[in-house]
Amino acid sequence: MEQGARQAPHVVIFPFPALGHVHPMLNLAELLSLSGIHVTFINALSIHNRLLRCTDLQSRFGRFPGFRFKTINLGLGDGLPHTSDDIMAVLKSLRTTAKPLLKELFLLDNYELGTTDKVIGQVPPVTCLISDGILSIALEVAEDCGIPTFHFRTSSASSFWAYYCIPQLIHAGELPFSGNDLDTPIANVKGMETFLRRRDLPSFCRMDNLGEEAFQYVMSVTLSTLGTKGLIFNTFEGLEGPILDQIRVDIPNVYTIGPLHAHLKNKLASESKGKSISSSGLWEEDRSCLKWLDEQPSRSVLYVSFGSVITLTKHELTEFWHGLVNSGQQFLWVIRHDVIKDKDDEFAHMDVELREGLTKNGYVVSWAPQEEVLAHPTIGGFLTHSGWNSTLESVYEAVPMICWPQLADQQVNSRFVGEVWKLGLDLKDTCDRVIIEKMVRDLMEARRNEFLERANDMAKFARASVGEGGSSTRNLERLIQDIFSFHGGGKA
């Protein structure tokens, strides 16, 4: 390894073990590697093995001599966290399993890089940590070892701000709340006073007891960001500028570097590095859907996907199926093998009417190459769970949305899509075939031009942000320079 490479900074990146967190942090890891920074990426063994099976992860990062993976066995099997209880179980396991690994990484003087039979070089001591913003253990260990830390929140800036304002909501008596009046306005999230309702708060706010473990953890870890060197968001100024201004009052050093998937593609294209394997799916992609899309008219297909974590009941699946078929619109639907949480023998024999409806105007796959699907010219809308990665990918490709949020930040995201950015419709807290049919028709027909115009305008801002001189490009450059400054000087 060359002398200059040995003197580059060494960054540890540590995501929460879920696809929505790992995917953007892998994109950031690749961008930092392209800038000559050594990266150690900590991954849960279960996630890592699935990525190895389903993606070209090895060749994607194998071209960087200063990059390596470290894995942690959480001892929780191969399943993904689907509920707040699952998430808390993962966090508790990480507290036990990650602490010794982090201490070892932070305290060693150097690290040997090599194959099974020879050493090919060394990585210098850790310069800084980029930790998922919901992992308190990482910041604690880094502080003990004197390692500068950045928090990366993989959610929207708007949802982070809602989390951050929870103490004010408690002080004002807006939390906790009980009863079914979810349309009561929320007045104490600054910048959202005119449109935020109880139903738009993060999902864990719907409780009667402030002492609930998940609620207390999220509130605590969000406030811990005040002790970091800076806060990284996968967003851009043109989308969330007003809320970012609110955040910067308390946390001045904010880096908006998204949409990361687009930023990475631009970087690779400009440096003639080839195509990034940006897909980070945990299931094998069914690419036959792209051929089916090729046969459809422009902007005629509704893409339907609820991400990698959301599960549905048989009733919910049936309501969506009827609503989609009855709308008369063409649709491409991702139905994961594990998406039904109450699957039984009865479900295995789906109603004949639904099967016939599918053959008329639908195409179903178990997993799709989502970035390619959303970029396809026949996609006219996206029925989504409002996960932040899906939302950003849709914004970048100018695809209007119907939002059906279920967990964590998704409630906030869907409100912004429908009420603030006017990029689609919010289907929150309902799952009725008649309403679904109407919303699909509105998005794809009745209000099609209105939503497409708004989506195209926002997509222009997104593309400009990751272009030459764009806000996200400048912020990524600033983040890289700050990492080099921790290493003892500016970038050579």
TrEMBL record:
Methyltransferase found in the keyword field: no
Coiled-coil ranges (or none): none
Enzyme Commission code: 2.4.1.-
GO molecular function: quercetin 3-O-glucosyltransferase activity; quercetin 7-O-glucosyltransferase activity
Annotated Gene3D superfamilies: Glycogen Phosphorylase B
InterPro entries to which the protein is assigned, alphabetical: UDP_glucos_trans, UDP_glycos_trans_CS
PANTHER family, A to Z: GLUCOSYL/GLUCURONOSYL TRANSFERASES, GLYCOSYLTRANSFERASE
Family in the record: Belongs to the UDP-glycosyltransferase family.
Stated name of the protein: Glycosyltransferase
Gene name per UniProt: UGT85A7_2
